[in-house]
Q: What sequence folds into this?
């Protein structure tokens, strides 16, 4: 286990997500989302590492919400929480009309920061639930009732969101996070895809060796 | 905002220079330091709050190897610079990120370090990126000796002689930092940990404090090494000569993407300077005292330009323009009575017509000098919370997004981005110590690793895809269909709220000079001499001529950016 700053987590999550093949815009959002989870000590890195491994050979376009009337679903029948989460945040205004139901989603914990972003935009409280869990956030604070074990399934079939609830017994904030070595190694492996291989030419040309004095 | 701002000089947004004028690389690359810069902000605070400085530890041998601790005690907290001196072979010395050994390494500790802390740091700080630090460390840094000057100065002092002033001024520093890391890197404290502390809330204050204390260490180091070598004959540096040494800084591409990656912060820096400028231009009349300060600073800035040395052809050309501008400016001013209404506004408008960007931006900085009470308070607006502007506003209409793109990125739309020279460069990160680099798209296989640092190109691509969408549709629906544009949509929405957030020039063109990006940021640090070593490396000198920590209480803390006129 190593203790990391939240900045390190954000940079690694962004690079790992990009390295896994997502667009830069989603990668940036993944960085912020995983950082947010870690700031509440919610093991965001593990969730991301699991997610990236499970989508490794999938088509992302088939994992984003395409049907949004009634229960949100994707073409493939399972949604990526980064793609579904960013869509939730973009369409936060829909929550003013009706609650939202979502179908099968991988690593649902990763949705929470996006829901928080939506709550912040709406200046309101949003309740997110699946299984026995109820998660309530106003954008700044978050509280979780139910079995916390239920936060980390590989996927969940049914999620609902509504503009409702109030936050109490909020999760405390953390300024750094312990991450298991194998999790960080997994993220690093994906992040490595973002780096250009070191070559002699690149070393000479790319940074421009300064004249020493 | 500054509470002492006279309502008579309240400025409307329309009197600020437009982003189309300011946010051009050629102009940003001609910025000069001003009183809002971070080094000056720091020293004004340290003096105002009567910070106390001490050196609780100095165990350094005659080779400069060992450990030292410098402490800075403010009204609320104490910070300590923990210093490690090393014995570096000349062939190991490099300014590159890929270096793995240095002449000296440093950590700024949050508080007073115990022996246990120092022991822990001794195993990590000398390793820099290969080590780990903790939340108790705010900054991590390293510095290398100047091969030209360091040994020469130690030799002189050991012989009881003072080094030659000309030789000192030719270099200006004994050691140069090659990185000053903060903000959570390598395990250090995140920015959020210190952002609410009034002494560190301003941009880069922890980093500036680190460099200010490094300077104290470096000067103590040469005197100590001379004395250790020859205790009977060694002399300390004359106080006047001592101040002539700043801390060099060697900056490369690691810093260049910063102002692109922090759009809200960039906006706030630039906007603060522009508001300050607009305030001064709006003044209906000026006093003889204010004119006197202005003229003195103008003369001093001119000496600064005369003393400014560089061998790089780009900089030599700019210096030529700047010196010619001073000639024109001084001639013009000598004919002014300053009796007309809004004389500073007249002067600025004259400069826009008659001077190069170097002279114009030098004048902008000079115009602020007499007005500390009016403008200094605006530094409190120069921080930023980038995360507050991060989320895409999905409810925005396509029409509105189109208008933003046409307004902010109108310059980019007519460019043929398929042409080689318009997309010649690729910003990427090398797996070699994660060093940021700038490659040639058509000569090297680096395109697959491209970082998103080309907002002009991306805005143009976004605009093409958006053209077919009806205006009432939502941004949310658009990015669902086109996820590749999320990054750019976010940037465009940021610029709608923060008008100075975006550089309005091609950042991947064959004509790009990364040193323009570096100079913009370094001018806000407070640098006065920019010495490019290539189109992507810059040497600057920090705190040159500034008082040392133990001199602050009986010196002017804010009168050192330009040489005094009494000196030649």
A:
């Amino acid at each position: 286990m190593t203790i990391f700053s939240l900045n390190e987590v954000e940079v690694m999550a962004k690079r790992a997500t990009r390295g896994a093949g997502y667009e830069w815009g989603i990668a940036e959002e993944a960085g912020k989302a995983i950082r947010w989870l870690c700031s509440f000590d919610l093991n965001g890195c593990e969730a991301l590492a699991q997610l990236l491994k499970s989508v490794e050979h999938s088509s992302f376009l088939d994992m984003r919400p395409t049907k949004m009337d009634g229960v949100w679903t994707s073409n493939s029948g399972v949604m990526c929480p980064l793609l579904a989460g960013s869509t939730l945040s973009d369409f936060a205004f829909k929550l003013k009309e009706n609650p939202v139901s979502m179908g099968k989603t991988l690593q649902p914990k990763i949705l929470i920061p996006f829901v928080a972003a939506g709550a912040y935009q709406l200046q309101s409280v949003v309740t997110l639930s699946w299984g026995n869990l109820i998660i309530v956030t106003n954008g700044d604070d978050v509280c979780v009732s139910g079995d916390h074990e239920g936060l980390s399934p590989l996927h969940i079939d049914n999620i609902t969101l509504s503009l409702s609830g109030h936050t109490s017994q909020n999760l405390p904030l953390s300024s750094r996070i312990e991450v298991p070595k194998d999790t960080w190694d997994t993220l690093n492996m994906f992040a490595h895809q973002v780096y250009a291989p070191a070559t002699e030419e690149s070393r000479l040309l790319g940074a421009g060796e300064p004249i020493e004095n | 905002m500054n509470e002492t701002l006279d309502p008579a000089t309240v400025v409307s947004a329309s009197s600020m220079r437009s982003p189309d004028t300011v946010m051009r690389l050629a102009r940003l690359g001609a910025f000069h330091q001003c009183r809002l810069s971070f080094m000056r902000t720091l020293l004004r605070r340290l003096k105002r709050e009567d910070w106390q400085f001490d050196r609780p530890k100095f165990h350094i041998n005659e080779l400069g190897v060992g450990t030292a601790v410098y402490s800075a005690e403010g009204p609320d907290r104490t910070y300590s610079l923990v210093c490690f001196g090393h014995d570096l072979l000349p062939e190991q010395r490099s300014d590159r990120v890929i270096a793995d050994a240095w002449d000296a390494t440093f950590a700024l500790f949050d508080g007073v370090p115990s022996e246990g802390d120092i022991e822990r740091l001794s195993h990590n700080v000398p390793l820099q990126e290969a080590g780990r630090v903790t939340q108790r460390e705010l900054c991590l840094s390293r510095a290398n000796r100047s091969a030209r000057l360091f040994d020469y100065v130690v030799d002189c002092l050991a012989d009881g002689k003072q080094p030659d002033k000309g030789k000192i001024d030719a270099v200006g520093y004994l050691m140069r930092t090659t990185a000053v890391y903060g903000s959570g890197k390598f395990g250090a404290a995140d920015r959020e940990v210190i952002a609410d502390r009034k002494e560190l809330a301003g941009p880069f204050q922890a980093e500036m404090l680190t460099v200010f204390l490094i300077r104290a260490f470096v000067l103590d180091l040469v005197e100590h090494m001379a004395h250790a070598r020859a205790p009977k004959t060694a002399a300390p540096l004359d106080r006047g000569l001592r101040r002539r040494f700043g801390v060099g800084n060697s900056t490369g591409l690691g810093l260049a993407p910063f102002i692109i990656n922090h759009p809200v912060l960039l906006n706030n820096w630039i906007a603060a300077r522009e508001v300050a400028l607009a305030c001064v231009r709006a003044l209906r009349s000026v006093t003889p005292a204010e004119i006197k300060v202005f003229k003195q600073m103008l003369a001093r800035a001119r000496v600064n330009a005369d003393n400014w040395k560089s061998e790089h052809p780009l900089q030599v050309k700019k210096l030529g323009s700047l010196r010619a501008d001073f000639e024109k400016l001084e001639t013009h001013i000598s004919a002014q009575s300053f009796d007309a209404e809004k004389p500073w506004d007249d002067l600025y408008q004259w400069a826009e017509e008659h001077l190069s960007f170097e002279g114009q931006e030098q004048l902008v900085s000079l115009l602020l000098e007499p007005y500390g009470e009016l403008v200094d308070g605006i530094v409190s607006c120069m921080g930023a919370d980038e995360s507050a502007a991060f989320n895409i506003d999905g409810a925005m209409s396509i029409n509105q997004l189109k208008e933003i793109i046409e307004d902010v990125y109108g310059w980019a739309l007519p460019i043929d981005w398929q042409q080689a020279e318009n997309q010649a460069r690729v910003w990427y990160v090398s797996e070699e110590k994660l060093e940021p680099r700038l490659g040639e798209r058509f000569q090297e296989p680096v395109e697959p690793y491209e970082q998103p640092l080309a907002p002009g190109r991306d805005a143009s691509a976004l605009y093409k895809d958006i053209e077919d969408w009806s205006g009432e549709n939502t941004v949310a629906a658009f990015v669902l269909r086109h996820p590749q544009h999320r990054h750019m949509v976010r940037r465009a929405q940021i610029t709608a709220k923060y008008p100075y957030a975006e550089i309005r020039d091609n950042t991947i063109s064959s004509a790009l000079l990364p040193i323009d990006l570096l100079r913009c940021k370094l001018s806000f640090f407070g640098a006065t001499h920019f010495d490019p070593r290539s189109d992507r490396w810059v040497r600057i000198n920090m705190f040159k001529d500034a008082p040392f920590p133990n001199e602050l209480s009986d010196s002017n803390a804010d009168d050192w950016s330009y040489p005094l006129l009494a000196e030649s």
Observations:
- The mean pLDDT of chain A is 92.
